[in-house]
Amino acid sequence: MNRLVFATHNDNKVKEVKAILPPEIDLVSLTDIECHEDIPETASTLEGNALLKATFVKEKYNLDCFADDTGLEIEALDNEPGVYSARYAGPERNAHLNMDLVLHKLQSHPNRKARFVTSIVLLHQGKQYTFTGICNGKITQKKSGTQGFGYDPIFQPEGYDKTFAELSIEEKNKISHRGKAFTQLIEFIKNTIS
């Protein structure tokens, strides 16, 4: 069986990916391999941060690994918050403060175009692979919806009249940046590793 580490402590993320992986892949989290360090995300790009996390695991535990990083890019704010999305309003990573800051900065701005980008880096048998998922949309005037997390209540995906936070998890996964990136990763794993 091929053991593969997903560089996250988020059990829900691991369960989601495990559910669609071939059974011969033994997917484990950072918690499963007893990695409790807070791996620094100091790169200037999403791909760079994902690579930092995956490399940390590969070097310390000698296990094949993949990691992801996601950012919200808002056209009118020169693609901010981007790589700083989680801590846009400060180091406490408060989603409501982050959304409030975005809404404040955009206030009456006519251009509300935005996109979510997810980068995944896989380190497997000495090679590096990258997968990217993008979801275009716009920033709404106010928060709406209770599903999801992060910026979901203020992001309305293209072709929808609801925010991510108003869609079911199933609906969101079909069109989301993360869903697209993970679909590519899983296809690659099915065809290459399993």
Topology:
Elements: E1 2-6, H1 11-20, E2 25-29, H2 46-61, E3 65-74, E4 80-82, H3 95-106, E5 113-124, E6 127-139, E7 155-157, H4 169-175, H5 177-192
Parallel strand pairs: 1-2, 1-3
Antiparallel strand pairs: 3-4, 3-5, 5-6, 6-7
Q: On the 0-100 scale, what is the average pLDDT?
A: 93
Query: How far apart are the first and last residues' alpha carbons, in Å?
Result: 8 Å
Q: What's the architecture in CATH terms? A: Alpha-Beta Complex
Major pleated sheet:
7 strands, mixed
> Any idea how many domains?
1
- Separate helix tally: 5
How many strand elements?
7
> Which CATH C-level class is it?
Alpha Beta
Low-confidence stretches: none
Residue share in β-strands: 25-35%
Order of helices and strands: EHEHEEHEEEHH
Instruction: Report the C-alpha radius of gyration, rounded.
Output: 17 Å
- SSE class: alpha/beta
CATH topology: Maf protein
What characteristic shape results from the CA principal axes? globular
Secondary structure: helix percent: 25-40%
